[in-house]
Amino acid sequence: MMQKNPDWWRGAVIYQVYPRSFFDSNGDGIGDLPGVTAKLDYIASLNVDAIWLSPFFTSPMKDFGYDVSDYRGVDPIFGTLDDFDTLIAEAHKRDLKIMIDQVLSHSSDQHAWFKESRASRDNPKADWYVWAEAREDGTPPNNWLSVFGGSAWAWDSRRRQYYLHNFLTSQPDLNFHNPELQDQMLSEVRFWLDRGVDGFRLDAINFCFHDPLLRDNPPSQAIQEASIGVRKENPYAYQYHKYDKTQPENLAFLKRLRALLDEYPGTTTVGEIGDDNSLQTMADYTSDGDKLHMAYSFDLLTEQNSASFIKHTVETIEDKLEDGWPCWAIGNHDVARVASRWKAASPEQMKLFMIMMLSLRGSACIYQGEELGLTEAELEFEDLVDPYGISFWPEYKGRDGCRTPMVWTAGEANAGFSEGKPWLPVYAEHLNAAVDLQDQQETSVLQAYREFLGWRRQQPVLLTGDIRFHASPADTLLFSRTEGENAFLVALNFTDEPVMLELPSTARPIDDAPRCLVGQWRGASVTLPAYGAGIGKG
Q: Does residue 418 surpass a pLDDT of 80?
């Protein structure tokens, strides 16, 4: 049965399932909810604590479910509400929590609310979206830009006004300055809590509010690829996003959201923070135990992965968070596969990245396929379906390369994903990483994930202990995790040469360490092979 610990989320490992690409149960080429249910035993075998389901709501699928047209419906391509209820029940039988993706800041333009809102300026939902007058010359009200390129304003001929869309033009922004709209969105969240979900991943949660004065954003002082939309080929990167998101009013709404979840003990939230000052925003949104339970940023979702960068990121967030709680991710459905993005040339590097993330203080999200070491799929332009990639091709190829189908069985058609033509092609270079092959290899990346996660969940120090970094040679990391009288030392070698790290005199090896911890302990030192990791008592 499910654990009764209401703080289960602290130190939890959350496995992100992108349903379209996980497993297709009915042969239409698109993964679905019954497909997820069919693979629950596999997910449980990973020794994770929860599943985060990317959107399965009713949607025209212009942004593949992140454009919701009915917050309480399951899109027919994914199944039915009954299928969802079955998934919840079967997951809970396996001690797996279910978290769902909630897209609060915007809806689809096909949502009934928007259809009513755009019909006139005086209907009951006229103020549920962000509408603004054109300037005298007919141009948009200000200089705000869309993450997907171009102005964040679209003209509507019926109201003869512009509406705000931070993402696609078909994703109008909801007006959270309207208390009635806030109440409605909380009601949508309650609907799923009543169905038994254990939590929510909150998409673009810092986008809910905008500056009511509609002031222009200032130019960016430095273009550093980081958060949502910040790529050098995207004009979005050229603004400092002072007024179009991360407004102070958002904190009060997050308190209302937390009060709702507190009515359902054991539920949790993890917020996605895409902001120019993401680490400070994470701290603000998770402080004092009355807003988000945890949050993650895009800081480890870029191409930067040096030991010094990771140390700086973690120390910065630890300094800012105070009583907040981080959630770490090195891959998801929006960024290139970590094995390619961080240029992992061997299974040892992929294991190192896994051990690093899962040894930091905080919770962690693993994106489907990371446990197989999947690389970014290289697709032809004609195979693309992501509007982001189509707009910026070829400088940016979009998000399809990390969304190709899971590879279950190397010898079956479509790698066992579907009996029909998959919505994105199965990437041929992934076949050698299929689940059925790695199941038979004792030292595969998949087996390393299973063993390390199974061991980690028995180590309270790694789940909830404090963290402190120590001096170590270049391109290595050495840090302590401590809880009460117990302490672990984590040593990581990011180089392609062996390295020896001097340790405190109290350091000693762990008897039951999983096989992926390959460090050799001798007295107060540990020798790490290339891309090796060691964890000992300290």
A: yes
Cβ–Cβ < 8 Å for 111, 66: no
Phi/psi of residue 340, each to 5°?
A: -85, -45
User: Counting Cβ atoms within 10 Å, is residue 146 exposed (0-12), middle (13-18) or buried (19+)?
Assistant: buried
Task: Give the separation between CA 531 and CA 413, rounded to whole angstroms.
Answer: 35
Q: What is the mean pLDDT of residues 173-190?
A: 98
Marked catalytic residue, from 63, 67, 109, 203: 203
* Cα–Cα distance measured from residue 75 to residue 69, given in angstroms and rounded to the nearest whole number: 9
Going by C-alpha positions, the residue among 510, 511, 512 that lies closest to residue 535 is 510
> Could you tell me which residues come within 8 angstroms of residue 285 by beta carbon, excluding any fewer than 6 positions away?
205, 206, 250, 251, 254, 271, 273, 291, 292, 295, 324
Task: With CA atoms as reference, report the closest residue to 495 among 478, 479, 475.
Answer: 475
Handedness of CA 185, 190, 191, 197 (dihedral sign): positive
Peptide bond into 460 cis (omega under 30): no
Q: What is the DSSP string of 98-110?
A: EEEEE--SB--TT
Q: Is the pLDDT of residue 308 over 60?
A: yes
483 is catalytic: no
Residue 528: φ, ψ to 5°? -110, 130
Where does the pLDDT of residue 505 fall: very low under 50, low under 70, confident under 90, or very high at 90 and above? confident
| Residue 425: partners with Cβ closer than 8 Å, 6 or more residues away | 377, 379, 383, 404
Catalytic residue among 136, 137, 194, 263: 263
pTM of the full predicted structure? Answer: 0.95
Query: Mean pLDDT across the chain, nearest whole number?
Result: 94
Taking only the tens place, the pLDDT of each residue in 368-381 is: 999 999 999 988 88
Cβ-count burial of 427 within 10 angstroms (0-12 exposed, 13-18 middle, 19+ buried)?
Answer: buried
- Measured on CA atoms in the order 482, 322, 358, 291, is the torsion positive or negative? positive
Based on C-alpha coordinates, what's the Rg of the chain? 23
Residue given tokens 């300037």 in the structure block: 135
7 is catalytic: no
Which residue shows structure tokens 């309480």?
72
| CA 3/CA 6 separation, integer angstroms | 8
Q: Is residue 367 within a helix (H) or strand (E), and if so which, with residue range? A: strand 363-367
CB 442: neighbour CB atoms within 10 A?
A: 9
Report pLDDT for 415. 98
